Amino acid sequence: MGRNDSNVTKMRKKQILLLKIGVVVWVCVIYAFFLHKPAATSTQKSHDITEQLDKLEEELNKQSQFYSVLLNKLRTMHQQQQNLGDEAVLQDPIVESPLLDGPVLPVLLIACNRDAAVRRSLDLLLKYRPSQERFPIVVSQDCGHRPTREAIESYGEKVTLIQHPDLSDIEVPLKERKFKGYFLIARHYRWALNQMFQKFEHEAVIIVEDDLDIAPDFYEYFSATYPVLQADPTLWCVSAWNDNGKADLVDVKNGTGLLYRTDFFPGLGWMLTKELWEELGPKWPRSYWDDWVRAPEQRSDRACIRPEISRTRTFGKKGVSNGLFYEKHLKQIYLNDAYTSFTKMNLTYLMKDHYDLVFEKQVQASQVVTINDVKGDRLAKGGFYRLIYHTKDNFKKLAKSLGLMDDFKAGVPRTGYKGTITFFYRGLRIFLSPGNNWKGYNPSWS
Ligand SMILES: *[C@@H]1O[C@H](CO)[C@@H](O)[C@H](O)[C@H]1NC(C)=O
Ligand SMILES: *[C@@H]1O[C@H](CO)[C@@H](O)[C@H](O)[C@H]1NC(C)=O
Q1: DSSP 3-state assignment of 168?
Q2: Mainly resides where (predicted)?
């Protein structure tokens, strides 16, 4: 190892020391904050305490953000140091990432002609990536747009670029002319997924598009859920997205570790296995692939895992997607910012047999309430409640008034499981659910 390397090592050790000192100082500040609570008169006391608690909460939130940034810095430095060789090995490894070992889970990023968007997506994918070996990033570019290709190439060996060879025009029925983008996307997906599974022979792929921000625990989430996906044949995907993931519909404070099963295919950052691709690939549609996937013939009663709090957020679509829909819903999805160590949790509860038992029990045990009870702030916080719907219009009306998505695809409402939408509203856990004599989804509901 050369002189330069050992200088770099010294420098890194210094940086780590400084970071450690930073942590100690921070802890002292917080400690002081606790000790020097100002004395209050008895009349003011209650008010002051509330205010103090609010401040403390704000302070703790800031800290948690600070630590997660710090953790990432240390992780990166630790990794860089390991890459430098023996001399650079740390005496006491500060961060033991459980994500360095395990099956390879590649990320496939679908790109076209938006260089700034690709950069933004790649920057975050690389920022949070714990290991290049476990999580190789493959960017598949369609469209032949040069600035986008150059943007991807500027990341060098950190990512692999593959380019869709078929840039030919595509024949689209006259009345679907304005939806041509959907045809091009479906063709690109089929080619790119074939590359991932047939050419590179991966066992599973995490697929994202070039308009997604990811959460710090994105890789952790997919690592931990992969064994569940493999073990349970009634699951066919893991998605990082909650369609009803607006801040006022999820338990932001206490729900970061919560995961669910859903009959609705969410997409937007999702993982599939080779087995599923072998099934879907040969009959892949010419367009509208996501709605095709949601049709009963493809889904065959299978479910996806989805989080309470989204691990992806879309930052906008030009062209093919609906602008109003983006403003009203997609843009408001809350992106998780607290790191959850899913790989250290027991996720067996997501397997169908375990999950359904608990789920049915919870729904049945919940107090049946009306929309006025829910909106009137009359119910005890922390409880479980059930709002019942019987018709499509009934569902839509309730969903609308609560800010939930009110559409159906192949009769399944977004995030629905056994017809039930689970969400969190003003401190209440609520099931928007069909009556007990529910007979299954009605594909004519749209
Ligand atoms: C937080 O969630 C856990 C389960 O994830 C639950 O046991 C606990 O009661 C919740 N705490 C609050 C304050 O809601
Ligand atoms: C994991 O959870 C499942 C059910 O949720 C339980 O049956 C099993 O005993 C748990 N395993 C461990 C090691 O705690």
Answers
A1: coil
A2: cytoplasm
Q: Angle CA(287)–CA(269)–CA(243) in degrees, nearest 5?
A: 85
Ligand 2 atom closest to 346 (CA): 1
* Strand order through the sheet with 270-273: 160-163, 137-141, 107-111, 204-209, 270-273, 235-239, 303-307, 259-262
Distance (Å, rounded) from C-alpha 301 to C-alpha 295? Answer: 10
Q: Is the CA virtual torsion 145, 147, 150, 155 positive or negative?
A: negative
Count Cβ atoms within 10 A of the Cβ of residue 415 and give its class: 0-12 exposed, 13-18 middle, 19 or more buried.
Answer: buried
Give per-residue pLDDT as tens, 193-205: 999 999 999 999 9
CA dist., res. 197 & res. 219, Å (int) = 20
Could you tell me if 294 and 410 are in contact, meaning their C-beta atoms sit under 8 angstroms apart?
yes
- Distance between Cα 354 and ligand 2 center (Å): 10
Determine contact, residues 232/351, Cβ cutoff 8 Å. yes
Closest listed ligand to the CA of 349? 2
**What amino acid positions are annotated as catalytic residues?**
290
Closest residue by Cα to residue 386 from 420, 411, 347: 420
The bound ligand whose nearest atom lies closest to the alpha carbon of 348 is 2
The ligand 1 site (C-beta within 6 Å) comprises 254, 258, 382
Copy the structure tokens of residue 320: 């093919």
